[in-house]
C-alpha cells in the first residue's frame, strides 16, 4: 500500500498522463546512467553490484579509460573468498563510509567500495577504481544514497508488476467470469497449453525461517519464469501462495499430453540450484486457455503426490500417478482405515507375530497366483496355501468375492500411503 501511495504521489494526474519518475535527474532504475554520473563526479570508473556480488551496471564514459583495471564483471570466486575470509566484505557492509581495499590475484589492485543501504538492509555495493580523497569519498557516500533510491525503485516496480501478474494468473487459473479478461491481459492466446505447479519441499523447508523461505520461493519462481520464457515467448508464470504456477503454450498439432512440458520442467531442475527440494507437477494438456482450471487442478493433484513422498521423483505428470492421486484423495476422506477383515488380520499379526497381512498382500499383488506369490515371500507354495486359508478364517473374508478382494487391496494401498506420508 505504501509503495502504491508513493507511486501515486510521484505520478500525479491520470495514469495515461503520468510523468516519468526520476531520482537525481536520472530516470528511475537506470543504474547505468547513475554509474556514469558517479564516475564523472569521481573521475574514476565505477561498477554497481547487488548484494550477491552480481554486476548490475558499470560506467562507460571517457573516465573509464583513465584508470586501468576496473572490472566489468564479478571478481573470480577465489578473490571473493579471499575478501570474505579476510573480513573485508563484512567491513564494507558495516561501514557507512567508503572502504579502501586491495584485491585481485596479484594483490596490487586498489579499489574503493561502499555499501548501498536502505535502512539497515544492504542492497549492494559500489566499487570505484583507485583511491579517493576525503572530498570524493563524501561524494561517493552521497552517490550511494542515490543508488539506493534507484535499487529500491527497481525492487518496488518489479514487485508491483510481479504481484499484478500473479493476481491475473490466479484469476485465469480459477476460471469464472473474469478469467477471459485475465487471460487476455496476460497475453495468452486460444491455443493448446499446459499448467505446471512448482513448490519447495523437504525437511529443510520446514526448518527455514518464514522470511528466508519466502525469499527462496520468490527466487525459484523468478528463475522458473525466465526458463519458461526461453521455452516459449508467450509463457506466463507467477507465485500464487506457496506454489509457483506456469502456463506453457504448446504447438497446435501437439499430442504429447504434457511430455514437452515435463521435459522443460526436468531441464529447469537440472539447471536450478536450491538448498531446498523443488517439486513440479505437470497438468494435463488442454486445447484452449478457457480450460486452464482443468490443467491447474491436475497439476495440483500431481504435485500433491510428490509432496506425499509416494514416488521418488521431482517432476511427474498426473497420468503417471493417477492411481496414487485417487488413493490420496480417498485417504483424506476415509477415517476408518483399516477396518473389517484387514483390521482383524493386522490385530492378529500384532498379537501372534504372524504375517497374514503380508500373505494377503502378496497374493493380491500376484493376481491370485500362489506360485508367484509364494516365490515373492520365499516360502513353499503349500505353506503359502495354508497361510492363505488362515487369512480367510481369521479375517473372515471371502477371497472368491471380487468386491472383498477389491476392498482389501484398496485398504492395503491406503495403509501404505498413510505410512509414507
Name of the top-level CATH class of the largest domain? Alpha Beta
Oligomer: single chain
Number of strands: 12
Distance between the termini: 40 Å
Helix content range of the residues, please? 40-55%
Specify the biggest β-sheet.
Answer: 5 strands, antiparallel
Note the beta-strand portion: 15-25%
**Count of domains:** 3
CATH topology of the largest domain: Beta-Lactamase
Mean pLDDT across residues = 81
- Outline: elongated
- Count of helical regions: 16
Unreliable stretches (pLDDT < 50, length at least 5) are: 12-18, 63-73
Side-by-side strand order of the widest sheet: 4-3-7-6-5
What would you say the CATH architecture of the largest domain is?
Answer: 2-Layer Sandwich
SSE string, helices as H and strands as E: HEEHEEHHEEEHHEHHEEHEHEHHHHHH
- Output the radius of gyration: 31 Å
Fold topology:
Layout: H1 2-10, E1 22-23, E2 26-27, H2 31-42, E3 46-50, E4 55-58, H3 77-85, H4 88-94, E5 99-103, E6 109-118, E7 121-129, H5 134-174, H6 179-185, E8 193-201, H7 203-207, H8 210-231, E9 236-240, E10 243-249, H9 259-271, E11 277-282, H10 292-308, E12 315-317, H11 322-333, H12 340-352, H13 356-365, H14 370-377, H15 381-395, H16 402-420
Parallel strand pairs: 11-12
Antiparallel strand pairs: 1-2, 3-4, 3-7, 5-6, 6-7, 8-10, 8-11, 9-10
Helix pairs in contact: 2-5, 5-6, 10-11, 11-16, 13-14, 13-15, 14-15
Amino acid at each position: 500500500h505504501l509503495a502504491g501511495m508513493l507511486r501515486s504521489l510521484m505520478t500525479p494526474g491520470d495514469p495515461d498522463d503520468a510523468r516519468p519518475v526520476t531520482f537525481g535527474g536520472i530516470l528511475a532504475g537506470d543504474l547505468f546512467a547513475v554509474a556514469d554520473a558517479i564516475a564523472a563526479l569521481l573521475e574514476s570508473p565505477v561498477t554497481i553490484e547487488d548484494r550477491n556480488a552480481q554486476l548490475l551496471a558499470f560506467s562507460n564514459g571517457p573516465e573509464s579509460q583513465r584508470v586501468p583495471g576496473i572490472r566489468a564483471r564479478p571478481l573470480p570466486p577465489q578473490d571473493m573468498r579471499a575478501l570474505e575470509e579476510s573480513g573485508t566484505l563484512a567491513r564494507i557492509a558495516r561501514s557507512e563510509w567508503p572502504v579502501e581495499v586491495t584485491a585481485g590475484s596479484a594483490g596490487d589492485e586498489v579499489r574503493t567500495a561502499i555499501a548501498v543501504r536502505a535502512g539497515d538492509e544492504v542492497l549492494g555495493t559500489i566499487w570505484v577504481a583507485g583511491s579517493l580523497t576525503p572530498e570524493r569519498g563524501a561524494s561517493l557516500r552521497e552517490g550511494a544514497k542515490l543508488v539506493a533510491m534507484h535499487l529500491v525503485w527497481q525492487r518496488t516496480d518489479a514487485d508491483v508488476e510481479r504481484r499484478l501478474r500473479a493476481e491475473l494468473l490466479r484469476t485465469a487459473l480459477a476460471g469464472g467470469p473474469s478469467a477471459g479478461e485475465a487471460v487476455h491481459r496476460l497475453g495468452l492466446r486460444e491455443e493448446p497449453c499446459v499448467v505446471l505447479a512448482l513448490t519447495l519441499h523437504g525437511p529443510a523447508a520446514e526448518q527455514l525461517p518464514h522470511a528466508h523461505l519466502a525469499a527462496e520461493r520468490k527466487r525459484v519462481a523468478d528463475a522458473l519464469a525466465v526458463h519458461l520464457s526461453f521455452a516459449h515467448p508467450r509463457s506466463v508464470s507467477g507465485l500464487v501462495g506457496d506454489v509457483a504456477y506456469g502456463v506453457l503454450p504448446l504447438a497446435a498439432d501437439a499430442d504429447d499430453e504434457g511430455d514437452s512440458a515435463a521435459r522443460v520442467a526436468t531441464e529447469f531442475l537440472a539447471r536450478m540450484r536450491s538448498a531446498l527440494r523443488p517439486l513440479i507437477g505437470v497438468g494435463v494438456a488442454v486445447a484452449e486457455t478457457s480450460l486452464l482450471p482443468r490443467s491447474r487442478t491436475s497439476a495440483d493433484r500431481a504435485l500433491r503426490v510428490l509432496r506425499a513422498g509416494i514416488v521418488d521423483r521431482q517432476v511427474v505428470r498426473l497420468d503417471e500417478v493417477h492411481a496414487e492421486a485417487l488413493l490420496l484423495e480417498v485417504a483424506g476422506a476415509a477415517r476408518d482405515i483399516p477396518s473389517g477383515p484387514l483390521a482383524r488380520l493386522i490385530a492378529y499379526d500384532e498379537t501372534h507375530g504372524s504375517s497374514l497381512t503380508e500373505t494377503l498382500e502378496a497374493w493380491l499383488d500376484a493376481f491370485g497366483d500362489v506360485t508367484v506369490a509364494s516365490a515373492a515371500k520365499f516360502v513353499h507354495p503349500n505353506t503359502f496355501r495354508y497361510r492363505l486359508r488362515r487369512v480367510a478364517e481369521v479375517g473372515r473374508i471371502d477371497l472368491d468375492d471380487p468386491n472383498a478382494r477389491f476392498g482389501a487391496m484398496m485398504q492395503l494401498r491406503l495403509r501404505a500411503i498413510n505410512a509414507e506420508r
